[in-house]
Design a protein that fits this description.
The complex is a heterodimer of chains A (421) and B (164). Chain A has 421 residues and is an alpha/beta fold. Chain A has 14 helices and 18 strands. In chain A, the strands form 5 sheets. Chain A has a 5-stranded parallel β-sheet. Chain A has a 5-stranded parallel β-sheet with strand order 16-15-14-17-18, covered by helices on one side. Chain A has a 4-stranded parallel β-sheet with strand order 10-9-8-11, with helices on one face. In chain A, α2 crosses α5, α6 runs parallel beside α7 and α10 packs across α12. Chain B has 8 helices and 7 strands. Chain B has a 7-stranded mixed β-sheet with strand order 4-3-2-1-5-6-7. The chains are: A alpha/beta (421), B alpha/beta (164). Chains A and B meet through α2, α3 and α5 of A and α5 and α8 of B.
Chain lengths: 421, 164
Amino acid sequence: MGMTMTQKILAAHSGQDRVEPGQLIMADLDLVLGNDITTPVAIREFEKINTKTVFDKRRVAIVPDHFTPNKDIKSAEQCRLIRNFAHHHEIENYFEIGRMGIEHALIPEKGLAVPGDVIIGADSHTCTYGALGAFSTGVGSTDMAAGMASGQCWFKVPEAIRFNLNGKLQPWVSGKDVILHIIGQIGVDGALYKSMEFGGAGLAALTMDDRFTMANMAIEAGAKNGIFEVDDKTLAYVKEHSTREYKVYKADEDAGYVRVVNINLSDIRPTVAFPHLPDNTRTIDEVGEITIDQVVIGSCTNGRIQDLRAAARVLKGKKVHSKVRTIIFPATQKIYLQAMREGLLEIFVEAGAAVSTPTCGPCLGGHMGVLGKGERAVATTNRNFVGRMGHPESEVYLASPAVAAASAVTGRISSPEEVVK
Amino acid sequence: MIQGKVIKYGDNIDTDVIIPARYLNTSDPAELAKHCMEDLDKSFAARVQPGDIIAAGRNFGCGSSREHAPIALKASGISLVIAETFARIFYRNAINIGLPILECPEASRAVADGDQVRVDLNTGRIENLTSGSIYQAEAFPDFMQDIIGSGGLIDYVRGRMGQR
């Protein structure tokens, strides 16, 4: 039997011709990543290992993006710790405020993830880089510490679910709707311990930003990684952003999958995940009357330029509803600048939305948009767990940037079709 | 051998309720323990006793990769988590930091809140002293037992790097 993309990448990085699902391997790492929440714990563990420095100062990346710009003194101390560590070990890919971005938008943009890589990050959404045909997965701080010291990580080779995409997205439907639809179909543990491999004729119709959003939320189905077939769009993206060598792996025709799911992109409607799990999905036609207090557009899931353009198309010439606060977060400085040059930020401010510097803050109830008791938000983020964005009695509805922007205008969860005639 | 009182929860207990992100501006275990489970179960911090065992359903520890979640449980005095299944990052983190975990759907479903349970981690044998029932969890693969036996991942890696 042949191998999946993930099997091939893991075999190549563990010095083997082939690996089987369930096999435990030690793999060489191309990149080890951490943020301001997870890196302090990793540093504490790293310092227990008898090693002078990191395995490769070019292949460690540290991004202070969660509670930054520093939200309080304790957060400032955590950032100070990781900054000092980065300087002491001459970590080349440490990204300071003003030059940074939300890690999972920043790493591909900086060309630090390319097809065929094996990447671990002490952040669950590290699975995002699977959009580039890399094996990329979230781990904890201790794994990050061991990875920084040794350049290796242990893995159990995952079984895989194959998603064959066909058709073409309808207007106002994006990668966010596709992945919410899929999670709604298979459940929050539908891909537990497994690889989600995306391919098929429909792939060509998905932009790179659609693919980043979809790979990003593979973890919300419990997956170890999400991975996309590499095509011309992937290679064009890599050539534009990276000078690193890459290797394209393709699944064998006879690769073994535990499940094959066919997705007709043409059938997917704008989709919303209701509280308190990402698999609690309904199409926009089924949501009913849900009034809202806040809209958040941004995050590692949906803070890229395509997302901001979609929001601007809806908000142009409109006003945010009088009872709604709308906060928009471009995911990186580069995206911020691009949005400024395209006039998107002007559209947002004129509509009555706040525009913020890049941060993960509101997505995890950290700062810059925390919800009070009983408040409801439509967010383009990735999780709607109890208390995720603030008070344990607040509610988060996950949606695309277009749906979030439309909801900002009407004050209730709405389709962009209703707002843009 | 571990023995303790069961605290029972349902499916999809995510790391945001195990330790809400608003407390992640510290990684001090004792500080994290004060807020463990508070968004799901306000009584947890007050009623948890050293040695207590959590029994839960499917996908325990889903969501964020925060190692603060198993650290908070361990610092609260939790000696073991038994679940039908674990989310994979939580599973790694628990092994890496030395919080014992066992996957055993039968035991997870059958034990009740307040039951006294005794567990042999070497064999995976779970005995409900309250009901008298006995369950068998699957043993860890040798590789993971090596990590656990080394005292966690850091000691394991230190040993391996010393051999190079």
